[in-house]
């Protein structure tokens, strides 16, 4: 038997493995390695601190999400020359083809002053389940002062989640009647709130309308937790009372340990075929790549679908198709029961118009209730359709073009 081994059972690894199982040629098996027994629906972490979702809705036992063999252990090292993976418990797994889908992890430890014994006293993250839970308690007790959401340094996954947290916090504080006593500020190391100008203008208007202050190109030197200030490398001090920090991200530790990643442990990847650039019979998916595409679940999903198609060809000894074009799409919550659908790729600014193409009903890059319902409904679709690898109406084609279902 030949083995297809997948490292990481998050969004990309799970969609890929469940879908690939149905298309494996004879004499091939597929196994997935992940040490974490729980699958977290990460977009749901946005709603947890604001009390809008609880843990049960956004987590599932991993065993229930996988239709293939699951090896419940951490990966320790990859030896690509020997085609072997060593696990933390010293088990050695051989593979014929390897897919790395180990995601990106927030690294608060890389931000001077942020993490210490008093981490989660007045400074929080919300990109982890523990961080979002701790922030929920802090927001419940927060009635006045400076609420600062900070993108400390790229790269980060889903940077728009910082905007969403500001919008939803604004809504919550207004409902509680405390908004007049709370100043909300978004600070970001990025030069704008969004990478494409039209979308940045759109978000700029929405933030201004809600009296949310924005500071761009803020380069953090350190967080002084005693003085409760962010110190920038230019010597400015930005005070806060409650800080929500989104620290820089890196790839998994085993990538660094194995010497197969870049400086931040992301794996150099061919942007079209998703093959690892310097490794034989290794492919990379989702946040684990070094690609210049947003680290978001839709990218993980589109890449997983395309890799299934490509790998089926590859296992039948047909040439790879270079087909991934950098498509990304997601809903951005803007508060008040509205959201915005953003859809773009490498070469195109976020589309305006309607989805499905031309006819609607969901407007793109424009606030709407439908987009909000879309965002809320997506959690259900994630668990029931996307993760199990069922055919999905939206795929790797930009929403501006008709989607061609794969398989
Ligand atoms: C707050 C928040 C809001 C978001 N909102 C959106 C949104 O609205 N829309 C959107 O499209 N995206 C959103 N995202 C981003 C999206 O969730 C991620 O981009 C997506 O999950 C990436 O999928 P992945 O499979 O590459 O990585 P992950 O889903 O993170 O999976 C990586 C897996 O690898 C495993 N792993 C890591 N190291 C090892 C190891 N050593 N051994 C074994 N296994 C390992 C992990 O346990 C994990 O299961 C959001 C993220 C956050 C945090």
Mind explaining what this structure looks like?
Strands 5-2-1-9-20 form a five-stranded parallel beta sheet, covered by helices on one side. Strands 11-18-12-13-14 form a five-stranded parallel beta sheet, covered by helices on one side. It has a three-stranded antiparallel beta sheet with strand order 6-7-8. The chain has two domains: 2-104 and 251-326, FAD/NAD(P)-binding domain; 110-245, FAD/NAD(P)-binding domain. The protein is an alpha/beta fold and 407 residues long. The model is unreliable at 399-407 (pLDDT under 50). The protein has helices at residues 11-21, 55-58, 129-141, 160-176, 197-209, 253-258, 297-315, 369-386; strands spanning 2-7, 28-33, 38-40, 59-61, 69-71, 75-79, 84-87, 92-94, 97-100, 105-106, 123-124, 145-151, 182-188, 213-215, 220-224, 229-232, 237-239, 242-246, 249-250, 282-284, 328-335, 338-344, 353-355, 362-364. Bound molecules: flavin-adenine dinucleotide (FAD). Flavin-adenine dinucleotide (FAD) binds at residues 7-13, 33-36, 42-43, 45-46, 74-75, 101-103, 126-127, 157-158, 161, 252, 254, 286-288, 295-298, 300, 330.
């Amino acid at each position: 038997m030949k083995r297809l081994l997948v490292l990481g059972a998050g969004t990309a690894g799970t969609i890929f493995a469940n879908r690939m199982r149905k298309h494996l040629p004879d004499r091939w098996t597929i196994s997935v390695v992940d040490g974490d027994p729980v699958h977290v629906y990460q977009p749901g972490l946005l709603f947890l601190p604001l009390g809008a979702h609880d843990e049960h809705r956004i987590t599932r036992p991993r065993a229930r999400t996988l239709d293939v063999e699951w090896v419940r252990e951490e990966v320790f090292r990859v030896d690509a020359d020997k085609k072997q993976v060593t696990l933390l418990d010293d088990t050695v797994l051989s593979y014929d083809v390897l897919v790395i889908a180990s995601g990106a992890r927030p690294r608060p430890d890389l931000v001077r002053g942020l993490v210490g014994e008093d981490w989660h006293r007045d400074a929080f993250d919300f990109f982890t389940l523990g961080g979002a839970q701790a922030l929920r308690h802090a927001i419940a007790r927060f009635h006045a002062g400076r609420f600062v959401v900070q993108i400390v340094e790229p790269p980060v996954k889903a940077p728009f989640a910082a905007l969403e947290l500001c919008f939803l916090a604004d809504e919550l504080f207004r409902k509680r009647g405390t908004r007049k006593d709370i100043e909300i500020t978004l600070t970001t190391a990025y030069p704008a709130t969004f990478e494409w100008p039209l979308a940045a203008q759109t978000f700029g208007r929405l933030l201004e309308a809600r009296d949310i202050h924005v500071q761009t190109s803020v380069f953090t030197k350190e967080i002084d937790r005693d003085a409760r200030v962010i110190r920038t490398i230019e010597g400015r001090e930005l005070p806060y009372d409650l800080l929500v920090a989104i620290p820089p991200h890196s790839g998994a530790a085993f990538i660094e340990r194995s010497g197969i990643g870049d400086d931040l442990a992301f794996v150099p990847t061919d942007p079209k075929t998703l093959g690892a650039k310097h490794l034989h019979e290794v492919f990379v998916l989702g946040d684990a790549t070094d690609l210049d595409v947003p680290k978001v679940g839709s990218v993980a999903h589109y890449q997983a679908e395309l890799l299934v198609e490509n790998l089926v060809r590859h296992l039948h000894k047909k040439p790879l198709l270079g087909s991934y074009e950098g498509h990304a799409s997601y809903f951005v919550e803007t508060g008040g029961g509205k959201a915005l659908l953003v859809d773009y790729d490498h070469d195109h600014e976020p589309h305006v118009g309607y989805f499905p193409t031309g006819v609607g009903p969901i407007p793109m890059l424009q606030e709407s209730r439908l987009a909000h319902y879309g965002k809320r409904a997506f959690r259900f679709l994630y668990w029931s359709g996307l993760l199990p690898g069922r055919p999905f109406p939206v795929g790797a084609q930009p929403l501006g073009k008709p989607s061609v279902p794969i398989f």
